[in-house]
Amino acid sequence: MTRSLLTGNAAAAWGARLARVDYVPAFPITPQTEIIETLAHWYDSGAMDGRFVTLESEHSMITAAAAAAATGVRVFTATSSQGLLHAMEMLFTVSGWRAPFVLVNVSRALASPITLEPDHTDILAARDSGFLQIHCATCQEVLDSVLLAYRLAEDARVRLPVIVNMDGFYLSFTREPVELPDDSAVAGFLPGFDGDAIGFRASRPISQAVAVLGGSPYSYFRYEVHLAQRQALAVYDEIAQAFADRFGRMHPAVEAYRCEDASIVFFMIGAFATKAKEAVDRLREAGFDVGLVRPRLLRPCPSQALRDLLLGRSAVVVIDQNLSMGKGGVLHAELASVLYGQQGAPLLLLFVGGLGGRDLPPEEFFEMAKVARAAVSEGRAPEPRLLYTARELREFRKLQAIATEERREAGS
Fold first, then answer.
1. Do 346 and 316 form a contact (C-beta atoms < 8 A)?
2. Span 54-72, mean pLDDT?
3. Which residues contact 374 (CB under 8 A, 6 or more apart)?
C-alpha cells in the first residue's frame, strides 16, 4: 500500500484502474474531464489493459456502458451536471436492463443560470432512476467507494448500476492524501466480474432486449428493480465489513459523528459534511450537544439505520445543497418520510444552502444550532429558509434596484 496526494478526480481514476475495468466509454464535461484524461493517458501508455472509447454524447456513453456490461465485462464511466441530465433517459433504461457498472458523477449545479460550481441538484434528479447512489466526502472515500460499488453492482443479489458521487471542485480538484491499496489486495476483495449467465458469443447468441409490455408485467419488472435495491442494503453492509477487514477503513451506509449524547443533529451529504464535523467540534466546546449524521448510501434509502440514529433526538437540522422547486429540499422530504409517524421523532428544520458552490462558513452552523435550540424550546420548527448573510442580501437588493431602474428608464 502506498500513499499519494490525489485529487478526487484522480482518486476516481485510480479506483477504476485498481478495479481492472475492461471498457471505458467516455465524454468530457467540466469538472469531470480529469478522470477520463487520466484513464486515457494510462491506456495510451500501456499502464491499463482494456479499451477506451470517446463517444459523441453522454446519452450514447451510458448506452455503450450498459451494452458492454450486459455482455459480462467490467465497465466504468463518468459525467457531471448537464451531462448527467443528457444521459437521464438512458439511466432509467439501463437500470431496467440490470446491467451492473459504475458511473462517477462529479456534482455541479444545473442551469439556468449557468455556473461551474457544485451542488446536489444534478445527482438528486437521478434519485428514482434505479441506479444505486454512494455519496463521498473525501478523496479516500472516492477511491474506496468505486471499489465498493463494483462489488455491490456485480453481486448476484443486486445486479444494478451504481453512481458514486462527489462534489465538483471542492472535492474533484482538491488534493488529499489517499492510500492506494496493492493490486493483489484489491483482487482479493474484488475478483473478476463473473457474469454467470450474462454473455455474448457468436456461436451461442442470446438476445438481451427491452420488450414492450403492458401495465401488469411492467409493474412486475419495475418492482423487481425496487426489491433488488432493497436487497442491496444488507449486501452493502456485508461488503463494507469485508472492505474494513481487508483495508482497515469502514464505510457504513450512514456515518454518525459525535452523536452518542447529541440532542441536536446536523444532517447532510457530500464534502461540506467535513465542514460540519469541524463545526460540531467547535460547538461542543461552546456547550452545544450537537452531532452529525451523514448518509453515504442514499439509494437504497437506509431507513432503519436513520431511525436508529435519529429517533429520540430533540431536533435534526437538515442542510440541503439542492432545491426541489415548489417544495424545498430533497433530503428534508426524504428524512421526513423516514421519520413520519415514528415515536420519538425529532423536530425537523430545513436550511437550503451551498447552492451553486456557495460556501457554508462555520458561523452559519453556529446560527443553525441556535435556531434549533430555540425551536426545541418553542416546540415547533421554523419555516424553511435559504442560507444567506445580511451582506449578501443587501448586495442582492442593490442589484434588484439597479435592474428595476434600468427597466424603468428603458420604458420611458
1. yes
2. 95
3. none
State pLDDT tens for residues 95-153. 999 999 999 999 999 999 999 999 999 999 999 999 999 999 999 999 999 999 999 99
H or E segment and range at residue 54: strand 51-54
Q: Which residues of 313-325 are buried (b: 16+ CB within 10 A; e: fewer)?
A: bbbbbbbbbbbbe
Contact of 4 with 178, CB cutoff 8 Å: yes
The CA distances from residue 83 to 104, 299, 313, 362, in Å, are: 12, 20, 39, 32
Give the count of beta carbons closer than 10 Å to the beta carbon of residue 211.
7
Q: Contact 73/115 with Cβ under 8 angstroms?
A: no
Residue 90's contacts (CB-CB under 8 Å, 6 or more residues apart) are 59, 62, 63, 66
Query: What percent of the chain clears pLDDT 70, i.e. is strictly above it?
Result: 96
What pLDDT band is residue 388 in, cutting at 50, 70 and 90? confident
In this structure, what C-alpha cell is assigned to residue 163?
A: 453512481
Q: How confident is the model at residue 394 (pLDDT cuts 50, 70, 90)?
A: confident
Spell out the long-range contacts of 123-128 with Cβ–Cβ below 8 A and sequence spacing 24 or more. Answer: 123/84, 123/163, 123/165, 124/322, 124/324, 124/330, 125/84, 125/85, 125/88, 126/84, 126/88, 126/91, 126/163, 127/298, 127/299, 127/330
**Nearest one of 188, 268, 229 to 98, comparing CA atoms:** 229
Half-sphere exposure of 394 (CA within 13 A, CB side): 3
Using an 8 Å Cβ cutoff, are 35 and 6 in contact?
no
* Chain length of the chain: 412
Residue carrying the nine cell digits 496493492: 182
